[in-house]
Amino acid sequence: MRIVSAEQRLFAFYLVPEFTMLAFSSAVEALRLANAVVGYEAYSWRVVSSDGAKVRASCGLTLEADNSVAVERQHLTSRLRPSVSVICGGKHVERHVDRAADAWLRECRNRGVAVAGLCTGAHILARAGLLDERKCAIHWENQPGFVERFGAANASSGIYEVDGNIYTCAGGAASFDMMLHIIGRDFDESVVSGICELALVDRVRDPGERQRLPFAQRVGVRDPIVLKLVEKMEKSLTEPMQVEELTSSIGLSRRQVERLFRNELHCSPARYYLKLRLERAQLLLVQSTMPVVEVAIACGFVSASHFSKCYRETFGCSPQEARGRIMRMPAGRPDECASAA
């Protein structure tokens, strides 16, 4: 068995209000199981909140905190300094602004403490200025708004990313995979395998594995040509290509491609392309304060009026009405916009 240091590694988990319990518990359980496999407390952890008070998760449960951010900042110059400071994000992360926490994270970086983000934790790290020109991962629902707001960050579609001493993951079960990566750097693969056996996990996923299959694959599309064209569409939502441009590289006519799409997806290529762009627009309306006209441009619409018309036809309300529902919704409630979709 190999270990980098005989010293116990300490993790400080900062809970953002409405954090995702699954992402947090998956990370902590990986550390607990690592201790069980190696036979001693190689890892320890504590829970941090903004003011040291309880924090409510998105599922409604509350957790006690061990420290406030102010106390954590004091620990950075003592023997209680953590090895890794982990930001546990969740729903409505853009609503929970804490300048003291941002300053603490920057100080962690300056003092050589690794930082990590679970679920939407990358949003907090980016807001603190730690993800400029850095690879990162964030939950797929939050990626459109994140990319628009933090253009200097290099967000991927993978389940987690490691860039130097910055770790980010998409949340959920991906937290477990990322923690196994960290544990695997300290110990050999036998320890990681032992953790997987205890957790009834059949394999360790690679960081580049996609968070979410393309819609075409989720509904059972198998035709390689349709899948290839859908991938091209997903990569060009801001500047949509003409159907002829999409098909120019595959040697089929527009009529042949339209027949394939109707057989596989029961709609035309143009209609499916529109669906993808409107899905991105819906996420931007929920996640950002971008003006509706900017959302329209970011999703490849030539005008706000055309965007509003297409949005209303698909979702039964205007973009302004959809955003109004979200703004009136108190924190902690399910997204009405998502249920309307």
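The record above closes out task 2.4. Task 2.5 opens with a second protein, given below.
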Amino acid sequence: MPAFPAAARTALADTQLRSNLAHATSTIRAKREAVVGEVEQWEELRLSGAAIKDRALLDLEDHLVRLEAALQDRGVTVHWARDADEACAIVGDVAQAHGLDELVKVKSMATQEIDLNEALAARGIAAWETDLAELIVQLGDDLPSHILVPAIHRNRAEIRAIFRRAMAAAGRPAPDDLSDEPAELAAAARLHLREKFLRARMAVSGANFAVAETGTLVVVESEGNGRMCLTLPEVLVSVVGIEKVVPTWEDLEVFLQTLPRSSTGERMNPYTSTWTGVTPGDGPQEMHVVLLDNGRTRALADEVGRQALRCIRCSACLNVCPVYERTGGHAYGSVYPGPIGAILNPLLRGPDADEQTESLPYASSLCGACFEACPVRIDIPTVLVDLRAQVVDAHRPSRKPEALAMRATSWLFSSAERLRRAEGASGLAGRVMERFGRRSAPGGRRTLSRLPGPGVGWSRARDLPAPPVESFRAWWRRTDGGRSEGDRS
């Protein structure tokens, strides 16, 4: 992926994309505001959620060991994965051990993060997405652009075209008379997926929460596809980020109030599935849990940025972000888009991992709307500013134009004589511009239309006021320390 500014420029030129995003995000925002407004103690719930997650992160090692023991006591095989390659290998090995060439999946950000589908495909195993939006993305050979609604960039006419074009190659075809009515599109997806649910012997899920106290995993969803994946297959593998652990069952009380309101604008999720190990004769009879690091311990070591690991993947920050609303998720180049992606990706990978990752902390106006919407009070603007500093520090000493300009400015300001001469030159430039420059507005000051050289990018979207004709030092001398003639008399 290109750096964010280049990708955003392409997205901004897509008027259909901007229309789709504006409609979808405004609808979700309005629903969220209505149900959040009903809760008088909303701010107390936000504070409680942040405290619970911080407590879990503070003693993460102890809680993970406790979770592992509770899972094993209930017949679950626990695996530890340092990175994406290890996690994908574990899932692939389980599938091949059972001689499988296909499996079904619950919507999972962690499995998207590690490119599990692609890794399984390389081993001849087809991974079928069962979430409606994920199905649209998969059939369209597309990339997700939103945490909650991965196909938010598509309208229903585009979805109908995808179903008509691609469903037959992946299983049951779309009806010949399929319209773009949402109910008909959902019915076509339901029929297409039903045969996969009934045929699949293995499923892969993530987890919204993992309760250390009981070894319980939790998935919340709105469609029921997750419930089908978690109950029908013989084998279940859950890939869980290590930050998803919460200490006790009681801690879920807060998140099961804040997550649905912040994500789908609902008072509660239509489907909340919890599973605690293997129960003979009921549900999957073989369970595996892959506890995934993949940069999370790196993020945990960042004293400012570790708060990003509180994230419960609600997407509220995306829906209120003016930058996301105009560029969409693909411009962020990651499965985690929007404000949370702008901090989570650099924290997991390192802020200087590549040019695209380096650009993400700057993909924000720092308006603060994301912090106000976050149900666990992640101070995204503060983390963004800190990551920007880390990006700059990673390139010291640097020959980038900005760094060279800062060093030149430091050299100039470190000498009173050099500064005096520069002020004189500045005054001369100001007098020239007063005569030949353009006015920014009727009666306004003269401005430069464009800086030369490296400054062209800065001045393309900004007016540069002309330097003052008279420097501060000259004015001070002329007015005898700022006193007027009347003051001196």
